Every structure is written in structure tokens, then in C-alpha cells.
Structure of Elongation factor G:
Amino acid sequence: MSRTTRIERYRNIGIMAHIDAGKTTLTERILFFTGRIRAMGEVHAGSTEMDWMVQEKQRGITITSAATTAFWKPMRGPFVGTAHRINILDTPGHVDFTIEVERSLRVLDGAVAVFDASQGVEPQSETVWHQANRHGVPRIAFLNKMDKVGADFAMSVHSIRQRLDANPVPVQLPIGAGPEFSGVVDLLRMKAFHFDEASGEPSEREFPEALRAEAEALRLRLIEACAEVDGTVLRKYVEGRLADITEEELERALRAGTLQRQLVPVLCGAAFKKKGVQMLLDAVVNYLPAPSDLPAVEGVTPDTEVQVTRSANEEEPVCAFVFKLMHDKAVGSIVFLRVYSGTLRTGMAVLNPRQQRRERVGRLMFMHANKREEVDEVHAGDICAALNLRGVRTGDTLCALEAPVVLESLRFPEPVIQLAIEARSRGEQQKMEDGLVRLAAEDPSLRVVVDPETGQQLLSGMGELHLEIVVDRLRTEYGVEARVGQPKVAYRESLRQKVRQDYRHVRQTGGPGQYAHVVMEVGPAPRGSGLVFVDDTHNGVIPKEFIPAIE
Ligand code: GDP
């Protein structure tokens, strides 16, 4: 058993998928096998543990990026028998919520891309895949639904290569497909495993000779992919000593290749039947990075904007990034944090440079599937939840008082749709406005403005479904029945674009650039001094002379 430090035993991962590929089912099975859920509920039957919020359950889609902590001891491979902490960030699959995907991609270190093996790559998987490329996220692929009629392993692998321009490297070959799917060949060890029908437990079985030729061809392909990233494998390969290549060498090469994003190990299974999930968990630990495998996170000092880095080290000054706010009826606002360096303790005073506030760290906890675990401190690499941080918004950095840093802020796409909203009764108007302020603080892709001409509240967001959900949440969480107008394409888009361009110019040419990087909303400024902008850092005014072309 290898000796590893605490941080080397962390895996912060996302599960990304096209809607309906089985992400929720897989997540639930993972939580089952990692021992954190006692009884598994059927997906869409209102008992999915990852989907916290009411309308997620009703709609059967996953909107929030809740982080759940689980533990896994690999059954095979270099880390066999060592417990690893796997933090699962629930990345949303619906295209309207790409904003949420962006946010969780920012804080995860690796991802499992789930595909429906009967469909291969679907349009939406392409979107999410390219987002993950942009964020440099190492991935492994899981071809789910191998039990479904029409499941086709080779077609799915081919579509990953063709449509995603990736280098998929199968590490397994399914035994049977559709209703005959019964197990896998482990191509590293050239051993066959059968999945128990009831429990999904894998057990070794006789090698299916009918699959030998196909398995050997795929193993050769695996060795070739490993030879591209590992000198030892390469040497043995060119010398024709294939039989001398060890399992350990292949494991090491696959890990290195995945971390360098040169290859994508491919596994398969049927999450619904619990088949292949344990082997996937082994692969998560074996191939996806620990926080310590990644480059230091970059940020800037708040005043002078000097670049600084923070590495995943408990001894460095603390810095943590807020990637999600949620509201919980029982405990109020829950702030989800990724700790990048140092140690955060309850009672500690930290700085939130963007809001120019000091905060006292209240309660800290890990969210498990079925319980919340309160802790006194969290460390570099951890993903946790914090309560009682009132002045904090998504995208903020919390850092040591003596070592202020702002981690690069998230950029959010412009809203694409807008609608007018009003409470059904006058008495509820204030309640609605308060609710909207809260919801907008949680979700930076939601904008709430007052139309200067009509005085109406205008909501803008990423799509109709996004805004529908906001209206739903007003009703379920704030008890406000709201009336909405016809959705319109977000107004003043061209003006906003123009301001953004000019403002960027202002920044580059040394204008009042201390404010913002993204202009999110514009309108006439008070006293005609320029244009008001509201962004994710400050509210401010760009003096008129800096924006000459707009009126
Ligand atoms: P999500 O939208 O990606 O979260 O997908 P879900 O987990 O909600 O699954 C979508 C549908 O596929 C549900 O009806 C699941 O029961 C079904 N499903 C999930 N995994 C499997 C599987 O391994 N085999 C089969 N046949 N169906 C599955």
C-alpha cells in the first residue's frame, strides 16, 4: 500500500452528462457503494439524494451544484485499500444552466463524463465537453446503460473520438450488450469479471474466449496510448516486449496521460443495475488528479492587482473560493467553498476582499448524502459548506487577513431572455423583491433590474426554463405568487456589448479601471454623469468621457 498525504487522497470530481444519460442514477449508486446512502430511491420518484431542491425533483433535472462527500477504498490499482475522500460536485446537465456548469467546473479537479451507450455522444454532451476542455479538466468516460437494447460500446467510443476530438482509451471491454450485458474484461489485467445481478458486485470469472481477439486488439491500443506518455512502456513497446509491460506501468501511464489530458480512459456499465460502478470508483481514484497534482491556483492582490499563486498546501495562508450559495429553510444561507490553500477554522477572521469586508467563519461542515458533518477546520483541497457568512456572494474569495488575494473571478455569459414580473397582490410585492434579491445573490446569471420607464421589475436569465424555475422558487420558498409577462430577448444587448467593449478599452488605456471586468447591466446614471454599471464586483459609474460613443 502506498503512503500518501491527506491531500493526495482527495478527489474533487464532477459528473457531467447529457440530460438522461444517467448522471443522477450514477451519482446515487456511487453514494450507495461509498456507504453513505442506506436505501436507494428511484430517480424521478422524488427521493434522489443529490437533487435537493423541490423543483429539481419535480422536473427530474439537476440544477444545483451541491457538493457531496464520500469515501472509497480502491479494490485494484496503485492505491488499493487506501481510503480516499471523493467530493462530488453535481454539475447540471441542462443547457439552460451552463452557468452553473461553468461555476462547478472552476472548482473541480477532474470529471466523469457519462454517456448513454446506446446513443454515444449527444449534442449537449459536446457543449459540456468543450466547457471542460476550456477549464482544462481531466476526464474519464463512463458508457452507461450497457444493458439497454441498442447499447453499442464500439460506436460510443468511436463517437467520442470523432465528435469530441478526444483520445478515448478503453480500459474495459463489455461482456455482452443489451439484456445480455453481464460483465467486463479488465484490459490492464486481461481478466474477466461478472457483475452480480442483484448487488452489482464484480467477481472474477472465466475469460470469455470469444472476446479474446477483440480484447487483445484493444489492449494493444491501450499499450500504444500509454507508450505515448510513459518512457518505460514506450521502450518495451518498441522492443516488442509487450508481455513484460506490467499492470503498474500501465496504471501509472494511464494516470499521467489522463492528468496531462492526452487520453480519456473509457469504462462501461449499467448504473441502474449497479454494474460497473465500483470499478468506476477505482478509476476515479486511480486516474483523476488529487488537488496536489494540479498547478497552483492564480489570483491577484486586491489593491495592486499583482499576480500571486496559492498552492494546495496546508501551511500556506488560507484562501478559499465561494462557488455556490444555497438557501436552506432550517439554517439560512449555506456557502459552498473550495479551499485552495491553508486551513480555515471556525471562529477565524478572514477577509473578503471583493466585498471589502471581514467575515468571521461560523460553522463549517461536510455535506454527506444523508447527513451534515460539523467540523472545526477544513484544509487545502477540501470542498465544504459554511454557515453564517452573510456578506458573501458567489465568486468571492475568503482569505487570510495578512495575505489578501482575489482568485480570478468567474465570467458569466450575458442573459438571453428577459421578462417582467410582479406579485399578484400589492402586499406581496416587498416579499417578492426580497426573494429576488436573495435568488440573484445565489445565482449570478440571474439579473433583476427595474425598468426605468415603467417601474416594473425585470428578470433576465439564461433561458425560459431558468426564469420559470426562479418563479417556481418564489412560490415554494418565499410563498409569493408572481405574474410574469411574455419573455423577450434580453434588451439593450447591443448597447451592453458596446459599453463592454469601450470599457475594456478604458481599462487598457488606464481609465478608471479599478472597478470591474465585466459590465453586466447598464442604464442612465444619476445626474447624467455617465452610465451606471452593475457588475460582480462593484456598483459604479463610468464617467461619460470614457464612453464617448454611447447615447
Ligand atoms: P440524468 O438526467 O443524467 O440525471 O439521468 P437519470 O439518472 O435521471 O436517468 C435517466 C433515465 O435513464 C432514468 O429513467 C433512469 O432510470 C435511466 N437509467 C439510468 N441508468 C440506466 C442504466 O444503467 N440502464 C438503463 N437501462 N437505464 C438507466
